Amino acid sequence: MSDTELAVVEFVLTTLAYNERSDLDADDLPPGYRGPFWSEGRIERPLSATAETTGEATGVARPWEAISGLMFTDHDEFSGSLSFTDREMAEQWYLDRVDDERIERNPTLTAAFEDERDVDLDLARERNRPARADRAFIDALLDEYFDEDEEDEMLDLVEVRAPEEIEQTLADIVLTGEQEGEIQKIVKAIEHREYLASIGLREIGKLLFVGPPGTGKTSVARALARKLGLPFVEVKLSMITSQYLGETAKNVDKTFEVAKRLAPCILFIDEFDFVAKTRSSDEHAAIKRAVNTLLKSIDEVSLIQDEVLLIGATNHPDELDAAAWRRFDEIVNFPKPDAGMRADILEIVTREMDIVDFSPADLADITGGLTGSDLRLVLREAVLEALTEERTTLTQQDLIDAVEDFEERDTLKNLDMIEGDHDALVAGGDLSGDGGHSHDHSHD
Ligand SMILES: Nc1ncnc2c1ncn2[C@@H]1O[C@H](COP(=O)(O)OP(=O)(O)O)[C@@H](O)[C@H]1O
Ligand SMILES: [Mg+2]
User: Fold this and answer.
1) Which of 88, 104, 231, 358 is spaced 20 to 30 Å from 137 by Cα?
2) Pocket test for ligand 1, best of 220, 373, 437 (most atoms within 8 A of CB)
């Protein structure tokens, strides 16, 4: 028996079981199996195991060849569909080769074999990522809510990621003790949300991440979505102004609708200081209306009722007003990393690199005031510098040089920015999201 043989039989058995049991739905299929069957945001019965669907679901290039040696298998030359001549034999063959844990990774098979094996359907369901977190479902939902000509604008304002599309992991981010504690709490709250609802505890699930650019706010929010297997809905508030004004409030509304339809999910609202700024300045009435809609929507959305975890983030806590603060029930501080954290970050960032005489602690000593994002940039520069000399092995000295270069450039940039206006500073902050460097000098 080969792995591919087992994989293909498992898939065909799943399609057969799924087609027979109307009590199962798309959530009961493993995410990989759903891929080939999505059509306009739905998965319709019957699922058929053709060479194509089987190939896509299992990653086996020639599914029929993989199972043609088994005596209970058959296939239709014309349609390419795979079948079993003796279903019972196929099931027995499969059950002889898998443990309970493997079955429980597939709720459909868990349901099918509950009598034969000591497997738990609830557990299998709990562990299986819901269909609403699939890219295909997310795309269909966005299509439904936003017309094609609105889509471009919407993409600026909202971006939805499926958990499998998120690269950041919590393991790659160095956290303070407080941050770890808050994350632990929220993970538990999500796990036990039914219990929290039952005891009437509803004021939970709205976090505000506060700290300078490049300290990991966006990364932690995304990594959390990945860890929990939840879709990640990201709103960039400054984009409200670039919207066609008449539609702005409506689009904010729709964003929350989308989040609720995707729930359980994480709704991440970046640049939250934008709210306060708009309320105090004499912005266009349509923008004010949009911001008011936003605040109202935030009040109405709930982790316990709607299964939407709301995370706000701001680089400018000093610009938030009371109305903004009181909407969050936990504030999580993202300080610039201390020496110990810097050493840990350097350790993580250089994991795959070859560095002679590497001493993260020594580097930490000379990088005071730098953020995680800054440290990444320093490393990148060192790597590129070495490449210009055709070297892929670095030395500690390369890193020290890169730190000095970085600080020099940073000083130049400061001079540049002091001459620029305040908006330029904010715009710089906007770019920080994906590792772009920007130093927020109003907080240095
Ligand atoms: N504490 C940290 N540990 C590891 N990497 C970090 C840390 N803080 C920032 N980074 C890295 O810096 C980059 C920018 O971080 P980001 O999450 O966008 O910051 P923010 O949203 O606070 O501006 C990311 O690549 C991130 O991995
Ligand atoms: Mg960010």
Assistant:
1) 104
2) 373
> What proportions of the chain, in percent to the nearest 5, are helix, strand and coil?
60, 10, 30
User: Which helix (H) or strand (E) covers residue 334, if one does?
Assistant: none
Query: What does the alpha-carbon distance between residue 248 and residue 154 come to, in Å, rounded to a whole number?
Result: 10
Is the entire prediction scored with pTM above 0.85?
no
Are 37 and 95 spatial neighbours (Cβ–Cβ below 8 Å)?
no
Task: Using DSSP bridges, classify how beta strands 265-270 and 82-84 pair: parallel, antiparallel or unpaired.
Answer: unpaired
Domains of the chain: 3-128 (no CATH), 133-333 (3.40.50.300), 339-443 (1.10.8.60)
Question: pLDDT tens, 6-53?
Answer: 999 999 999 999 999 999 999 999 999 999 999 988 999 999 999 999
Measured from the Cα of 209, ligand 1's closest atom is: 22
DSSP SS3 for 371: coil
Contact 240, 248 (CB under 8 A): yes
Residues in the chain: 444
More confident residue, 157 or 393: 393
- Over residues 237-285, the pLDDT tens digits come to 877 766 566 677 888 888 899 999 999 999 999 999 888 777 776 667 8
Task: Please work out whether the CB of residue 428 comes within 6 Å of at least one atom of ligand 1.
Answer: no
pLDDT value at residue 290: 83
CA distance linking residue 26 with residue 31, whole number of Å: 9
